[in-house]
Amino acid sequence: MTATQSIPARPGPFRYEPGTLALLIIDMQRDFLLPGGFGESLGNDVGLLRTVIEPLRALLAAARAAGVPVLHTREGHRPDLSDCPPSKLVRGNPSQRIGDPGRFGRILIRGEYGHDIVDELAPLPDEVVIDKPGKGAFYATGLADELQRGGIRSLLVTGVTTEVCVHTTVREANDRGYECLVVSDCVGSYFPEFQRVGLEMIAAQGGIFGWVADSAAVVAALTTPAQLDPSPIRPV
Ligand code: C5J
Q1: 164 in contact with ligand 1, CB cutoff 6 A
Q2: Which one of the listed residues 31, 116, 132, 180 is annotated catalytic?
């Protein structure tokens, strides 16, 4: 028999074995979230992303207390931009491109203040931080190896933005056999409509990419003892 945990979610309960669960926090970086930063300079309302910080801080505390491994990602590039495809470089607003000077240092460049994670969600020294050049967290990174090393098969997915880096990562993870629960109030978009539809797309068609639940449901599960369940979650 396997010890399993279940979280009420859409389109149905999200079941996992506690030792195989990790919390993935995507791109909660100052460049995207701070007033006056890159995201705001593009005309976005960063307040919509900042609503994620408090529920995610509570979820992060619950995950750490429950011994759930935490992995953080940061979107960005080497200072010489050698890992930035020309197509990505030229696509932005001409005065606000990756590598240009911004209010918090060169935009989306590793080592710059703006590239790092907001203070409220700062990684602990033993937590994995994945630097990714793409939107998806698996592309050109060591994430798959990290998950395999930790025996992780289920992911609580959080961060920004819902329709871009969160979605791309969930799709990549789903194709690699991971089961993803997207935490609805711990993901954010600059566009309310994209937030709503982005979450609907995850759980549509019987959970085509995964499951969706709010942080209250996830925190409750993390603080509740697992049950012994005779039916395996997946074939072994
Ligand atoms: C974007 C991200 N939106 N982290 N990055 O360019 O979603």
Answers
A1: yes
A2: 132
